[in-house]
Amino acid sequence: MADVSTFRGESDRHSYRPAPGTIPDAPGVYKFRDSGGRVIYVGKAKSLRSRLNSYFADVSGLHPRTAQMVTTAASVEWTVVATEVEALQLEYNWIKEFDPRFNVRYRDDKSYPVLAVTLNEEFPRLHVYRGARRKGVRYFGPYAHAWALRETLDLLLRVFPARTCKPDVFRRQARIGRPCLLGDIGKCSAPCVGRVNAEEHRQIVDDFCEFFAGRTDGMMRRLEKQMHGAAAELEFERAARLRDDLDALKRAMEKQAVVFGDGTDADVVAFAQDDLEAAVQVFHVRGGRVRGQRGWVIEKVEETGTAGLVDQFLSQFYGDQAETDEPANGSAVPREVLVPELPDDAEAIAEWLSSMRGSRVQLRVPQRGDKRALMETVERNAKEAFVQHKLKRAGDLTARSAALQELQNQLGLDTAPLRIECVDISHIQGSDVVASLVVFEDGLARKSEYRRFAIREAATEGDVASIAEVVRRRFSRMVNDPVPDTSTPGINPETGKPRKFAYPPNLLVVDGAGPQANAAADVLAELGVSDVAVIGLAKRLEEVWLPADSEPLILPRTSEGLYLLQRVRDEAHRFAITYHRQKRAKRMTTSALDEVPGLGEARKAALIKHFGSLKRLRAASIDEISGVPGVGRRTAESVAAALAGDNALEKEGNDV
Questions:
Q1: Are 38 and 13 in contact (CB under 8 A)?
Q2: CATH of the domain at 430
């Protein structure tokens, strides 16, 4: 990696355009930043000079999203690298680190179910899961329908009776010494009560993973051989059970379509697109069978064809997969990736994928036979997904743009409020006062930047004082700790995590009327923040209050701008209510233990975690309480006495 160069400007893209002769004609990675120093786009190029010069051509000839990006940017910088593989790796790392708003991110759709196997636990658990992937857990899928996955899992449990229960159920059954219903009917080997030890249970789980990963032929032959052997030895009950196991495995295999007969290990990728958007579909083929399918619809940032989309997809998708999948899975990067067109840097991508897999990966376009037929099937799926997306969201982008433009006009703002923040307060009669701050960018929620506050000084002074406290805490951080002029302005150099409150909003919305809006505006004036507009949104009549105005601004009920403000406010309310309920539940759960001498927060948490609830802890004996790690007998006696007294007071109150 070689020199890093930067050119800065303000709003006009030509003010920060580097002189053509100063840009190296070499491979590298470049970053565009906005006026606040935030990275808004990351790209790579074989020739930095050619690529960067293309961004400063006539704006009317640029792709709409590209034009928006270069006019939003205020600086551009680049890093020269030695090879295209190094450029691929650096581009992926920067996109992950900065999360630029104009870059496409191929994150997993959380609606797709997968089968998770918690190999990081002593007794691994099989369960259907939706969400972000974690280290130490092996995943199979994703699958189109959760019900089909649960059906398949239920079939296989008679052959592979592994644990499927949640941790609290596992601990409860171990405590009472009796297996659950699945253990009684033979669909769990009941490791909770010692019917199998950890090594035996893990072998069951390993066999399950082998079968689900596609290595089925050897297992089927082994079971068939055992069945014939049992019949020959006149063990007819065992032979019948093995026969039923074979039938269950065959039914499970029938649920997965066979597409190749040669044990192919491949991902098949296809696209459907127009000038502004593209739909991506991926079929995961393992052991010759389609094991999973997933898809995305993304906005195109630059004028790019199918080859460019393939380039973007492969570098981002497999980078994320390799980071979350365990090496033993062997499924993060397949042996073969089939694509509709090869990108320009196909050899560099294949080399990069091979380094992640640890063996050679082929990147190619299928021309004939079964693989070409499957590619056509994936393309049909992509086209269908694209049509459905267009029907569902035909007016969505237009509506968001209209809402932002309307807010700019109605509120008299210099620019459209591309970043909106909203503050809401939640409490019950002044107790457990909390606040939320939510962020919307381009009319969409940006949940990674949500923040929540426990109100301190102003908790007893009402909502107006609480609003002022939240605004002061949020903007004091920005004023006193401004974005540094470094290569990673959005990252805290001490923690390596994104900086809190690093960038100001265009519009700050507070839940309330004139007093709340005035309080927020007064705090901003006190801190010297002059480039943030403030409004209050009152719930009763959905009135918009501007600071120092005696009358509210009434937006039409059909206004897209009002609808956007309502969504922002409702999201802030939801987030505040959720935090308030969590605080109340925590306080109510531990309040009975607060008076126990010598019982700190760590041991209170250990007790609640061990017994699952205060009710179960109250019913436990002193011996059971003292069995919790870190809790001695004297402390257990104090806990039992405190809970007994609390229970008596509760009954007395009920009697009254």
A1: no
A2: 3.30.420.340
Q: What does the pLDDT look like over 523-558, one tens digit per residue?
A: 888 888 888 899 898 876 778 888 888 888 888 777
Taking the C-alpha atoms of residue 294 and residue 317, their distance in angstroms, rounded to an integer, is 12
pLDDT at residue 480, rounded to an integer: 73
Query: What local confidence, expressed as pLDDT, does residue 23 receive?
Result: 86
238 within domain boundaries = no
Weakest mean pLDDT among 137-151, 432-446, 580-594: 580-594
Contacts of residue 409, defined as CB under 8 A and 6 or more positions apart, other chains included, come to none
Token pair, residue 424, equals: 């809401």
Choose among 633, 631, 636, 632: nearest CA to 620. 636
Same domain, 408 and 552: yes
Q: What is the pLDDT of residues 422-479, one digit of tens each?
A: 998 887 666 678 888 999 988 888 888 888 888 776 555 778 888 888 888 888 877 7
pTM of the model: 0.50
Domain boundary among 586, 610, 636: 586
Residue 173, SS3? helix
Distance CA 479, CA 599 (A): 41
- How does DSSP classify residue 13? G
* Per-residue confidence (pLDDT) for residue 330, from 0 to 100: 44
Of 130, 132, 134, give the one whose Cα is nearest residue 111: 130
Burial label, 58 (beta-carbon count in 10 A; 0-12, 13-18, 19+): exposed
* Number of domains comprising the chain: 4
Q: Both 369 and 410 in a single domain?
A: no
Structural domain containing residue 472: 400-586
Q: At what angle do helices 236-254 and 217-232 cross, to 10 degrees?
A: 160
- CATH number of the domain encompassing residue 611: 1.10.150.20
Has residue 655 got a pLDDT over 50? no
Residue 645 within any structural domain of the chain: yes
Question: Both 414 and 482 in a single domain?
Answer: yes
Using 50, 70 and 90 to split pLDDT, how confident is the model at 279?
A: confident
Q: Is 479 found in the same domain as 457?
A: yes
* 384 and 449 both lie in a single domain: no
Rounded-to-10 torsion of CA 208, 212, 215, 220: 60
State the Cα–Cα distance between residues 453 and 472, nearest whole angstrom: 12
What does the longest C-alpha to C-alpha distance in the chain come to? 95
Check which CATH number belongs to the domain holding 270 and give it: 3.30.420
The residue among 146, 156, 149 whose CA lies nearest residue 182 is 156
Domain boundary among 98, 115, 144: 98
pLDDT bin (cut points 50, 70, 90) of residue 486 is low
C-alpha 2: how far from its chain's center?
34
CA distance 338 to 325: 21
Q: Rounded distance, CA 41 to CA 301, Å?
A: 9
Domain contains 647: yes
Q: 551 and 610: one domain?
A: no
Backbone angles phi, psi at 42, to 5 degrees: -125, 135
**610 Cβ contact partners less than 8 Å away, ≥ 6 residues apart:** 171, 628
Q: pLDDT tier at 9 (50, 70, 90 boundaries)?
A: very low
Identity of the residue numbered 579? Y
